[in-house]
Amino acid sequence: IVPAGEWDAFMAALREPLPATLRITGGLNHAKEILHCLKEKYFKELQDLEVDGQKVEMPQSLSWYPEELAWHTNLSRKILRKSPQLEKFHQFLVSETECGNISRQEAVSMIPPLLLNVSPHHKILDMCAAPGSKTAQLIEMLHADMNVPFPKGFVIANDVDNKRCYLLVHQAKRLNSPCIMVVNHDASSIPNLQIDVDGRKEVLFYDRILCDVPCSGDGTMRKNIDVWKKWTTQNSLQLHGLQLRIATRGVEQLAEGGRMVYSTCSLNPIENEAVIASLLEKSQGALELADVSSELPGLKRMPGITNWKVMLKDGQWFEEWKDVPSNRQTQIRPTMFPVKDEEKLKAMNLERCLRILPHHQNTGGFFVAVLIKKSPMPWNKRQPKVHQRLPQRTGDTEVAGANTDNGCECINEEPTLPESQESKKIEELQNSDTEQSKNEQRVCGPPPSKKMKLFGFKEDPFVFLPEDDPLFLPIQKFYALDPSFPKMNLLTRTQEGKKRQLYMVSKELRNVLLNNSEKMKVINTGIKVWSRNSDGEQFGCAFRLAQEGIYTLYPFIHARIINVCIEDVKILLTQENPFLSKFSSETQKKVKDMAMGSIVLKYNPDPEKPDDLQCPIVLCGWQGKTSLRAFVPKNERLHYLRMMGVEVFKAKRKDEELESKTEEEVQHRLTQTEEEMDVEDKEHDLIIKMEAEIGEESSRSPVKSSAMEVENKNEGLDQSSNNANSHASQESKDTSNVKD
């Protein structure tokens, strides 16, 4: 595992704390501005600084990560959090992480998504996704072109642990994508999904699959001190079977020509090469290891190993399966041993696997293998069934043919179901389709409540707006929505009573949701685009724009847009409810003849003023009779102000005052997060008489225990219930359903 002569260096590296690393969210318009801000301001302030007797080195970019978007420093996370000299830098990291502009992620954890080679049209499955840092990377790659609000691809992020799913939701929601769905299943038996292609039901195969399996974690010793005490060889023996089952299920669901990345944060060959070799052997040539030696230049790596031994907890070693006594054959399995047949071994190309050793570039330990599927798995090979054309549903034209560009209709591999069972399934699907066409509201509910007892919380259903829903017409008219606006993709989380929030998904995810309501336990999907505004009908529309969905909605909005200059943006972001007289004369003219209500505030950079902010900004706002205000969460406000060169460090003092209040006051404040802008408070009703008071705050209260501190699969489970928001918490009046 460790080259000759390097053992001491390897062990010395493991005994040093892991350096802090961060990744700037790629694909965002603001990425270049954040990078510029980091380099020119925060990194320079770290120069010549000493903390606890340790000289702070200038952060360095990871040479193998594209476009200088990943950086590491010699500071440990503990020092970053505790040191007063680094308070400003740490506050910047916390705030930008909450906005989704930066992710605190271990360097080696960034490798698997990069090796997937994701394109915006790819259908992606992340099998063991929590806590979600790699999922976030995948979402970024889908949105590589920020001018396309709805990429054709999507990410289905799965985790077996219900609580960790909410941690995953928190991570994903920072990126405000309509193309992510979080589901809760055992990865080793994740169900086959169906999609509608030109009126036919077809099995969904994924173009890319990330298979980052549970592991013993011996590569994480630098940050998980417990591993030193708890590690035994038994860990790997117990996990090997599960890892192989998950990887097998992954390749079954992979499209021909698709790529699956298998990874662990372990260096034990029983969890790594043994799993890959077993998978290759039983694939009978359907899979091959990809040669990725030319990818990620600058990344120091070791080749996969081809020979290893298996050891029991008591210290017994075994070189071959035949040597294992019968009373030990439940603990040790034949798939744990290396392949002895030289020809077979050579054909597997196990040296194409990647091993990352901690002392080579000051990281954690890691293993990655990239598999390509050349043909269906041997146990799935059979003639494709003739698909019966299903009755076309009215209003579903946007779903039909959604995936035809991605090659899904060409794949002949079928789910492994007995013939009778399969025909029964097709019949059920047809019947459900017929019923659904009769039903005005298209509902994707959770499985029946009896099944739900196996899991945690019961989720609210996903209800797509019917085509003729009277709710939509005033919205369309008020914001002059483009005829191309995909209104069929709007959904709510309630079947009865007033719809308080409207969410949006891509048409491809809509296709998945509608066709798999009985198979999937969906935890969360979609981004919020509109919120009900108390008595908003008086202004012509009952729904105001939501900031988290504004970049998705903006291309379709043709009315109520006010272009503002940079000075106006500063006023909007620093003052709670500024009078119109404080804005530029151009802005005052634009709002003069505009009716009261929700508006879009757009800043366009001026290329002739290179010192000004050079990326566009879109903000949600509210226009009153005498005032104009922005509805932007606190951390997002701070982000824009930093990018404009405004000093915001003093904002920390307010947080400290908040902490000094009584527990009841703090609890009251924390419950008034961004939902306060959802205008459900009684105070908001005063808007009719006093347009200056649309809710007490426009800011989101800071989350004390950020998900950025939980970058690996062994940390932070207890934080998930505090950190992860779900749609149910916004929709349900019943506090027992709230996940916050």
Percentage of residues in helical conformation: 25-40%
* Spans of at least 5 consecutive residues with low confidence: 383-427, 429-441, 446-456, 651-740
Mean pLDDT, rounded to whole units? 79
Oligomer kind? single chain
N-end to C-end Cα span: 44 Å
Query: What structural class results from the helix and strand content?
Result: alpha+beta
Query: Mind telling me which CATH architecture of the domain at 108-128 and 187-380 this is?
Result: 3-Layer(aba) Sandwich
Overall 3D geometry? globular
Strand content: 15-25%
Alpha-carbon Rg, integer: 27 Å
The major pleated sheet works out as: 10 strands, mixed
In DSSP terms (H or I, runs of 4 or more residues), the helix count works out at 24
Number of strands: 30
**CATH fold-type name of the domain at 108-128 and 187-380:** Rossmann fold
CATH class of the domain at 108-128 and 187-380 reads: Alpha Beta
